[in-house]
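> example.struct
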C-alpha cells in the first residue's frame, strides 16, 4: 500500500508539472502572437475644401427625370423657325425644325449614332458624331450635347486642374486641358469656362474651346423654369464662330416631364446620302 501510495503521489506530481509546462508554453505562444501583430494604421479623414465642394456641387447639377419635351422657337441669322424637342435622358435626343408649319429637318441622337434628314434638299445622314466635327470643328458626343441642352456640367470629364474666381453672385470656374475620363471617347481636349450663379445654383454661361484651336462653343442661359422641382433653361444663346460667327437664339415653352414620348425617324430610299 505504501509503495502504491508513493507511485500515485509521483504520478500526481508529474501530471502537475506537465500541466504547468503546457500552460507556460501556451502563454508564451500567445504573447508571441501579440508581439508580432502590427498596429492598424490610422485612417486619415481628408476634409474637402470649399473649392472641392463647389466643384462637386456644379458637377452634380444634372436634373433627374425620364423624359422631357418642349416646343421650340428658333432664330438663326435673321430667320425664325419653329420646332419640337424630345428627350429620353441619357439615351435619345430628338429635334424637329419647321417653317410655316412644315417640317424641314429632323435630328435624332443616340449614344453612338447621329441621324439627320434635310427635307428641303432631300438628303439624309446616318453615322457617328464625326458629323458635328465636320460642321463646327468640334468632336462632340451625346453627353456633351445633352449637357448644353440641360445647362449642366460635362459628364465623364475630369474635375482637376481648375481655377476659381469668386464674385458677389457669379463664380467663374476655369478648366485647362480638360479631357474625358472614358478611353473610348474621341472628344477633344478643351479649355472650359463656367459662369455659375451661386445664388440660384445654376449655370448662366458655358464656354468650351478646343485646346490649340480657334473652334469654340459659347452658350448663355438667360431664363430658367422650375418644373416639378426640376430647374430647366428656357432661353439660350448659342455662339459658334466657326459657323460664320453664327448666333442661334432658342426659346422653349410648353414643357413636359415624364410623359410618354415617341422618337420617329425613317429614311426615304430616294434621299441622297450625306457623306
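> example.seq
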Amino acid at each position: 500500500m505504501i509503495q502504491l501510495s508513493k507511485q500515485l503521489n509521483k504520478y500526481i506530481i508529474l501530471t502537475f508539472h506537465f500541466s504547468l509546462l503546457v500552460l507556460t508554453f501556451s502563454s508564451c505562444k500567445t504573447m508571441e502572437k501579440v508581439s508580432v501583430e502590427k498596429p492598424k494604421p490610422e485612417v486619415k479623414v481628408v476634409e474637402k475644401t470649399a473649392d472641392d465642394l463647389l466643384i462637386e456641387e456644379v458637377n452634380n447639377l444634372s436634373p433627374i427625370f425620364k423624359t422631357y419635351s418642349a416646343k421650340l422657337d428658333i432664330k438663326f441669322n435673321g430667320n425664325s423657325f419653329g420646332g419640337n424637342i424630345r428627350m429620353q435622358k441619357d439615351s435619345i435626343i430628338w429635334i424637329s425644325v419647321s417653317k410655316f408649319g412644315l417640317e424641314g429637318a429632323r435630328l435624332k441622337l443616340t449614344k453612338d449614332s447621329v441621324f439627320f434628314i434635310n427635307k428641303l434638299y432631300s438628303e439624309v445622314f446616318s453615322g457617328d458624331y464625326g458629323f458635328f466635327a465636320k460642321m463646327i470643328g468640334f468632336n462632340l458626343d451625346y453627353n456633351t450635347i445633352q449637357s448644353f441642352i440641360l445647362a449642366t456640367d460635362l459628364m465623364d470629364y475630369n474635375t482637376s486642374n481648375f481655377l476659381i474666381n469668386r464674385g458677389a453672385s457669379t463664380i467663374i470656374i476655369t478648366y485647362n486641358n480638360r479631357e474625358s475620363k472614358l478611353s473610348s471617347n474621341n472628344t477633344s481636349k478643351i479649355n472650359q469656362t463656367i459662369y455659375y450663379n451661386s445664388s440660384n445654383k445654376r449655370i448662366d454661361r458655358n464656354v468650351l474651346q478646343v485646346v490649340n484651336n480657334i473652334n469654340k462653343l459659347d452658350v448663355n442661359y438667360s431664363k430658367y423654369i422650375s418644373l416639378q422641382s426640376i430647374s430647366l433653361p428656357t432661353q439660350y444663346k448659342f455662339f459658334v464662330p466657326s459657323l460664320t460667327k453664327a448666333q442661334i437664339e432658342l426659346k422653349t415653352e410648353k414643357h413636359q416631364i415624364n410623359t410618354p414620348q415617341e422618337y420617329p425617324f425613317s429614311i426615304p430610299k430616294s434621299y441622297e446620302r450625306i457623306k
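> remarks
The helical segments are 2-36, 50-59, 130-136, 142-150.
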